[in-house]
Amino acid sequence: MTTFPPPLLFTEPWEYELRFPRDPRGPGIVRATLHAVLTAHGLRELVERAALLTSELTTNSVCYSDSCASVRLLWLHPVLRVSVTDTNPELPEPLKPSPELDSGRGLFILDVLADRWGGCALGEEPFGLGGKTLWFELSWGGPPPVPAPALAA
After folding, report:
1. Looking at the domain 14-139, which fold is it?
2. CA triplet 84, 73, 10: central angle to 5 degrees?
3. Which H or E element spans position 12?
4. pTM of this structure
5. What is the pLDDT of residues 77-104, one digit of tens each?
6. Which DSSP string corresponds to 47-65?
7. What is the model's pLDDT at position 149?
8. Which terminal residue of the chain has fewer beta carbons within 10 Å of its beta carbon, N or C?
């Protein structure tokens, strides 16, 4: 009989990372993974905002990068940080949203919905020829959720 360790406490840190190809299905797969992870860890209140912001960043990675990208979810109670890293070293320029523009609203949405966000250009790693990481943070504002039983693998 296999025995599993007890589930992490709500206040304990955890991290997940998903690497995805430059494929239009990537952002949807990332959203589904994010939903599963946050729900399993009792962070349902953050799912909607995190999914929208992650979708903005991963869609840009698919559109403007020339290779794979990765998403990292990091929980350091009471803050969730989501980072998206891709091979395009150019940091996006914030634009003032306008009805005439068909795009360029992603950073405005980050400004409105994220508690904090930022980005940085990378050197040679992790993908070889530079790249960038954009991240956002969402703060948990409620009491710890009632723990749900962990699902056996």
Report:
1. Heat Shock Protein 90 (3.30.565)
2. 165
3. none
4. 0.86
5. 999 999 999 999 888 876 666 666 555 5
6. HHHHHHHHHHHHHHHHHH-
7. 60
8. N
